[in-house]
Write a structure and sequence with these properties.
Blueprint: H1 12-39, H2 44-51, H3 55-62
Helix pairs in contact: 2-3
Length: about 60
């Protein structure tokens, strides 16, 4: 059985909505952190390495956000 952090009797749609909201919040926090890192002089290569992606993808996803 996979533990999701939700009670067994929770409505799956409610649980899915909550997970989506958590993901959106995490995405906003990540973008803000990337922006702060860039403002402090980190390179796209450094950021990409930490994110486990390429500099091109990191820049595409987070630049201008």
């Amino acid at each position: 059985m996979i533990r999701t952090g939700f009670a067994e009797d929770d409505d799956p749609l409610t649980a899915l909505h909550a997970a989506l909201q958590a993901r959106r919040s995490a995405d906003r926090a990540l973008t803000a952190s990337v922006r702060r890192a860039r403002n402090h002089g980190l390179t796209w290569q450094e950021i990409a390495t930490l994110l486990g992606t390429t500099p091109r993808r990191a820049r595409r996803v987070h630049q201008g956000a």
